[in-house]
User: Fold this.
Amino acid sequence: MVAAIDQGTTSTRCILFDHSARIVAADQREHRQFLPRAGWVEHDPVEIWRNTREVVAGALARADLATGDVAALGVTNQRETTVVWDRATGEPVAPAIVWQDTRTQSICDQLAEQGGTGRFRDRTGLPLATYFAGPKARWLLDAVDGARARAERGELAFGTIDSWLVWNMSGGTDGGVHVTDATNASRTLLMDLGRLAWVPEIADEIGVPTAMLPEIRSSSEVYATCRARGVLPGVPIAGILGDQHAATFGQACLAVGEGKNTYGTGNFLLLNTGGERVRSEHGLLTTVCYALPGQDPVYALEGSIAVTGSLVQWLRDNLGLIGTAADIETLARTVDDNGGAYFVPAFSGLFAPHWRPDARGALVGLTRFVNRGHLARAVLEATAFQTREVVDAMRADSGVELSALKVDGGMVGNELLMQFQADLLGVPVVRPVVAETTALGAAYAAGLAVGFWSSTEEIRTNWSADREWRPAMPQDERERLYAQWRKAVTRTFDWA
Assistant:
């Protein structure tokens, strides 16, 4: 077996996979979401570490397996979420700042005064935006008394969630290994995409001491062995991939032009561009797709959408229109269309392809005809419309015409949404047999490193389709709906 820890925005899971990539057992724990101010989103890193230990033990117990049955452990994680901790005590200096958090806007604005938002883009592939981890680390060092001086002395460690977990699993204060992989490092605004190395001058300009940065490694190698009590002692930690890169790997998008879309808290569409770092002219990100040892890194174009699945949660938790997330499909099916209503969920600005931090959410096109069912449908359709925007941008940047879209994530069980997505794109939407592709990608990376799988060809062999949705909407109707959506998006601009 190979174990994968999938540390996501709302929960932590451990999934055990066999050689055929079938799920043997899984366990999951949710963690709390802290929203202390408008635009602030925080997690408790200690709670996440505690949940990680619990889900590893839970998965083993469910499968009635022992540590000796596990060949390797892979880690995949919510990217950009930033932790700063004390190397001597293992205590975080403050709550983790989550990728959705926008408190660093003033830092980004200040940095953009010289060179604009694209100031570091040639080297990092990223625009200046609150999304990325570097400015979050800067904010923590500025906000916590004495933190900057301690960081400069090497007393503090910075990392995304993968670094935090691996450090703890490999011993923590007793010799824990401080590493990250190239996919996570590529989301910090601090890494050179060509050399896969930190850029000291950029780190200095952003305000992050290099002494606190982890070592950048490949996505598939033995970094350390587990030494933490109760977490697979002696098992090699052998794979690290940011969650969207892991899903791309797990979906076997290993050739140029192959891509996937993950439907989770947000949506993330990655297109494999091979060894070419494609600079986007249409609001996409250039990122590392994955990096295998002894091989040139593989790059990707990415369209990051901030709010999709979390909009369904908002409808449930803030408005109380549904009891569970799954209820939205039932409610949406009570109507034939959206009734003219469009919901643009720019709760903390818009990510790709607009990158408008000034945008805020809007529900437009309302008439007295609109009811609960239409609102539910508008919520689902917002995910598909935002995906269409990203697909159009990818086509414009890469010249690659999408022939089909591989999908994964929690929302792909919603068949109404999947059919509407196929209709809106005009291409088939394909769901794999193993929908847990994020965890599977981390498992593949770890298994390849220890010889559990012999090559990436086995990844291709293991992939198979479960369900396919084909477009059935006339083209003129597709374009009419999309034009209305784009009109709705403009209504969110210049609000904040």
Notes: The chain has 16 helices and 23 strands. Residues 260 and 406 are 5 Å apart (CA to CA).
